[in-house]
Amino acid sequence: MSNFTITIVGTGVIGTSLGLALKQQKDPPRLLGHDKDLDRAKTALKLGAFDKTEWNLVNACEPADLIILALPLSGIRPTLAAIAPYLKPGVVISDTARSKAPVLAWAAELLPPHAHFVGGDPLVQPAGSEQSQAAAALFHNRLYCLTPAPNAEETAVQLMVSVISMLGAKPFFLDAAEHDGLVAAVETLPSVLGIALLQTVAGQPTWREMRKLAGGLFDQTSSGASGDPDSLQAALLAQRSALLHWLDRYLAHLQELRALLNADEGSHETLLQKLDQAIVERHNWLVDYRQGHFDDPELAPPAIERPGLMRQLIGFGGGAKKQGGRGAEEQRRRK
Predict the structure, then answer these.
(1) How many percent of the chain have pLDDT more than 70?
(2) I want to staple 184 with a disulfide (CB 3.0 to 4.6 A). Which of 6, 216, 217, 242 is the partner?
């Protein structure tokens, strides 16, 4: 095992999967985990995702060369604020949140100049949200989006590219604002639709009987109304501008479908064409998604020799003196 230390804050399905995937390397980095839910952290350790878990956030992050915040959006700002005084020089910090612009703004506000932030968004779909669904193969042949901060050193970006390669994923670079605008359409908008669906049917007098007939399609469509409401609210508000744009477009298509349903028989062919187009588009996307065929040659980063890069990066902030001294110890006692 190398002396390079990676700390993953948050040991849910994504954080535990990251640990499991990195532990599969021939010479894996030293992996530390932290979660405010101590039972979840212990389970991740038993699953073999980490070499050690720390109950104290500062203890977990202070020795790290790379910190990945596998947290919901609502948990990232307070975590950055808590660890900022105790980061070693040259540390690289990333995250896994679906909204990138607010995270980059928090990083610019809170992190010291010697820390390098590279936003991340693994474009994966776990089998479920439970920790038991964590898997080392979750990232294999999937895209992993990176949104580096403007002041992030190239070495920090290359480090994240190297880690993504270790996961078996493919790096995909986007501007943070562009990322959030696109995610609003394909992730946040479906959540809003699921919420609206539940509000439509669950408030009806017939819901007691209606729910007995609901099955897989209802489950799939309404799945956006799940998880932590605070995190969901944070995501909706973070992408408010883009989300309003996509909601307007969606409502226009709903109105068009409603008009076709309400029209005479002469419009049935138009309705059929709309349905056929949607079915074909979904089929094509699903084939590409399952096979991981989203390569875009002009966006592909230069190839990096993974082992050589990792050897170089062992010294990227490694061996630096710990920050904070007595203040760090006092912070640990308070936590």
Answers:
(1) 87
(2) 242
Report strand pairing: 30-34 vs 52-53: parallel
Q: Which residue matches tokens 């709309």?
A: 274
Shared domain check, 216 and 194: yes
pLDDT tens by residue, 90-105:
999 999 999 999 999 9
CATH number at residue 218: 1.10.3660.10
* Residue (of 118, 95, 125, 96) closest to 292 by Cα position: 125
Give the model confidence (pLDDT) of 152-185 as tens digits. Answer: 899 999 999 999 999 999 999 999 999 999 999 9
> CB count, 10 Å around CB of 129?
12
Report which secondary-structure segment, H or E, holds 262.
helix 240-262
Token pair, residue 82, equals 């808590």
What are the tokens at 305? 């020799």
In this structure, the strands spanning 66-69 and 52-53 are unpaired
Domain of residue 205: give its range: 179-241
